Amino acid sequence: MAFTELLKNSGKLTSSLKVSLSKPLIGYRCVRALHSTSNLGVQEENLETTHFGSRTVPKSEKEKLVGTVFSSVASKYDVMNDVMSMGVHRLWKDHFINKLDAGKRPNSKEPLHFIDVAGGSGDIAFGLLDHAEHKFHDKESDMHIVDINADMLKEGEKRAMNQGKYFNDPRVKFLVQNGETLDEIESNSKDVYTVSFGIRNFTNIQAGLNTAYRVLKPGGIFYCLEFSKVNNPIVDTVYQQWSKVLPVMGSLVANDYDSYQYLVESIQKFPEPETFKGMIEKAGFQSAGYEPLTFGVCAIHWGIKT
Ligand SMILES: C[S@@+](CC[C@H](N)C(=O)[O-])C[C@H]1O[C@@H](n2cnc3c(N)ncnc32)[C@H](O)[C@@H]1O
């Protein structure tokens, strides 16, 4: 039975996905300024070029440039996230996992097939599997952790080894793949597709969404956590100031000004939530929606493959 059918049967689909779009999670603190003068994102690209932060670069180069950024931050990945979000990324990720509430239900015979794309650190993948086990006693569902960057995947594997869980586990596979194509992932094979703070780095975001649709089974769910657009003018002012300071913080904390500058700019270039919702629908998903978190600093987006 499809994961979304299970949710529907348990009454979970409506409560978990029909979320008030206007109500941010309160209690999370504002962390950074993301609004810029240009929020056009992918729409302003032409056929040969795309953006890399605020620079326009040949599309053929972006993948390599993004690779350099994440290879550079891989070993200090937690530091990067904590600096960028003042630690709030952990709360966002917990909320993301709890709200999705995925796992093989006791009344189901079928384990779930998860894929976490751009999942290098393993944060989301391990969190999802832990949730499934703790809440539903599910020790059968399996996980593909996919990332374009082998250095980031190595960090995830290192974490699995250090925590003594999910390393050399037949249920968990780490795979170097471009999320835009997922060449080694069969069509209609996954129940749950997650991507957290990854999709804004894709050269072609729409291709990534189309591929998410391809690999999901009918009834499968696309679930995405990504920086978004602040929806409160006062918070936005603070936020913009913070985004100016971030590369300097990156330089002090991780000796890496350029990577942090790229990360700030990549957030500014990401489409507005309504635009991104339209892209999810364009890929073929139904019931698309989103929930802004922390005044829209970040948002959860979803869509169902019918
Ligand atoms: C900010 S990290 C997020 C890691 C993790 N999902 C998390 O939430 O902690 C962004 C990740 O996206 C990956 N990435 C960027 N472009 C990608 C692509 N086209 N396909 C797959 N992964 C990609 C990077 O290598 C990096 O590991």
UniProtKB/TrEMBL annotation:
GO terms for cellular component: extrinsic component of mitochondrial inner membrane; mitochondrial matrix. Pfam families: Ubie_methyltran (PF01209). It catalyses: a 2-methoxy-6-(all-trans-polyprenyl)benzene-1,4-diol + S-adenosyl-L-methionine = a 5-methoxy-2-methyl-3-(all-trans-polyprenyl)benzene-1,4-diol + S-adenosyl-L-homocysteine + H(+). Signal peptide: none annotated. GO terms for molecular function: 2-methoxy-6-polyprenyl-1,4-benzoquinol methyltransferase activity. It is a peripheral membrane protein. The keyword Methyltransferase applies. Its EC number is 2.1.1.201. Pathway: Cofactor biosynthesis; ubiquinone biosynthesis. InterPro entries: SAM-dependent_MTases_sf, UbiE/COQ5_MeTrFase, UbiE/COQ5_MeTrFase_CS. It is an enzyme of class 2 (transferase). Keywords: Membrane, Methyltransferase, Mitochondrion, Mitochondrion inner membrane, S-adenosyl-L-methionine, Transferase, Ubiquinone biosynthesis. S-adenosyl-L-methionine binds at residues 121, 147, 178-179, 196. GO terms for biological process: aerobic respiration; methylation. Component of a multi-subunit COQ enzyme complex, composed of at least COQ3, COQ4, COQ5, COQ6, COQ7 and COQ9. HAMAP family: MenG_UbiE_methyltr. Methyltransferase required for the conversion of 2-polyprenyl-6-methoxy-1,4-benzoquinol (DDMQH2) to 2-polyprenyl-3-methyl-6-methoxy-1,4-benzoquinol (DMQH2). Belongs to the class I-like SAM-binding methyltransferase superfamily. MenG/UbiE family. This is 2-methoxy-6-polyprenyl-1,4-benzoquinol methylase, mitochondrial. It comes from Lachancea lanzarotensis.
